[in-house]
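Work Package 3 (structural annotation) set out to generate three-dimensional models for the target panel prioritized at the project kickoff. During this period the team completed the workflow that converts sequence records into discrete structure tokens, so that structures can be stored uniformly alongside our sequence database. As a representative example, we reproduce one entry of 353 residues exactly as it appears in the project archive.
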Amino acid sequence: MTDAVKRFRRGLVVGKFCPLHRGHMLVIDTALNACDEVFIISYTKPEFAGCEPDKRAAWLAALYPQMRALVIDDPATIPGNAAPDAVQRDFCGWLCKSVLHVNVDAVFTSESYGDGFAQALSAYFGQPVVHVNVDQARVAVPISGTALRADPHGNRRYLHPRVYADFVDRACILGGESSGKTTLAHALAAHLGTVWAPEYGRELWEEQDGALAYSDMLAIGTRQLAREQALAQDAHRWLICDTSPLVTQFYSMAMFDAVDPALAAMSHHAYAVTFVCAPDFGFVQDGTRVDAAFRQRQHDWYCAELARRGVAYTLLEGSLDARVAQATRVLSAHPGGVGARIDGVNSKRDEGQ
């Protein structure tokens, strides 16, 4: 059985994708269904916080690996968002011919400027270019980039989980053995209506009956960060992390007196908020822990190392309820917290793609 002949040979979708949302995906999917090949161009000037070029490129690569996406990150060459339509069209035509080395025969948009854009590309390429208008009235996907930047969490239904994950802030909980950090991570996530990332190192320790090798340390850090990325897609506003690669670095030094350089670099992984659980209650031996003195050593090292690195942290003390309340206050007050919004800049192109 042969594949159905598609209407166009090459299609083009141009947009800021700040952020890439389901309206954009509808346009791209329509193009994919109608074309043998589809090319994507993304640029914006100015940039928007939370939608930097590397993120836009990662979103497109993850969701549309079969397509060639050109994400421009050179502000010197990019026309401003308020530049005249003729300038924008000429820039896109130049990118197609000089960078992508293709002519297209269809351009897909959800904008009123699409007809003029197609006409300009027709003149630029010296061949007909058709405009395919997709949901211009925003009936199928009633959202805009402006609204999403203002409240990505309230409008998360319009974002693919892979894209939404990059708007989720991460709160890291550190603490020595038997300091209540896992209990707190679980309770805080439940209180906030979100998810938490359990400690993979503890799972591997139990799986291997405490026989960890030096090579396991880097694997633990790598797996922990991959777990965070995966769970962020299911989180709401915050992902609560019951450890960080910094913890794995501590254990690597304690167990092997050495740290893999890749793990050392990984230990600088940034979190929006860091909590340290105080060792202010009796040590509980569960069969896998060392002792109270080791717990204090851990606590002191975390606090000293965070201070040395200039990483702000909040010390959580008292009962579980007290810690949850204190942590919630900190998260609520954080710029990326419970009520956080990413501000956008209105422009001529802002409501569009």
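The chain is about 45% helix and 15% strand.
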